[in-house]
Amino acid sequence: MGRTPLFDRTTVVRSARDLFWVRGFEGTSIAQLESATGLHRSSLYHCFGSKRGLFDVALDDYLDTVIRPRLRVLRTEPAGADAVLRYLSSVRVAIESLPDDAARRGCLLVGCAAGLAGQDEAAREFVAAYWDEFTAALRQALTIAGDPRVGAGVVDQRARTIAAMSTSAMLLDRVDRVEQLAILAAAEALVRSWFSPVDEPGVTPA
């Protein structure tokens, strides 16, 4: 009969997640994971199989506890343009509230896309699934916002545009926080322009 682990798995996973979030998969050593989690490598390997196994669990936790709660506003009735604006605003406000000396970690999934996913099929599939989930949530909100002059193709294009701007902003967190906030503000302005009243009949917003 196997021994019961003498540690809290959730605490260990989130400690590792936060370390991966700052340093990335490649930049995180087993020694650093030992220090962050308080576990020896033998315990980490026994519980998670490998550094990569721990990273996969950390990605799942990040998606469930950080990303999906933030996306919920896009799926909750009444969703629509206001929901997209609330989503973008929540990200911008969270960044603005960080102290100047806070770690510049951006988004763990965006970091994975820029690093590990470039040479790892499983990581690539995970990031692609996240992108699909993100754009689907945006597409749902923008569809509910509803403009009878705008077809599904335009809605899809808009969802991809906002997703791309948000992703770019997260990537810039490590480089230029001012520009990062400017991109998020520009995304908010773009959404407002799509749903502002049009004076000339028959004109379809871009």
TrEMBL record:
Organism listed in the record: Pengzhenrongella frigida
Kindly provide the name given to this protein in its UniProt entry: TetR/AcrR family transcriptional regulator
Question: Which Pfam family name is an example for this entry?
Answer: TetR_N
One GO MF term, please? Answer: DNA binding
List the keywords (alphabetical).
DNA-binding, Transcription, Transcription regulation
- Tell me the domain of life: Bacteria
Matches recorded under Gene3D superfamilies? Tetracycline Repressor, domain 2
Tagged with keyword Transport = no
Domain HTH tetR-type: from-to ranges: 6-66
- DNA-binding span(s): 29-48
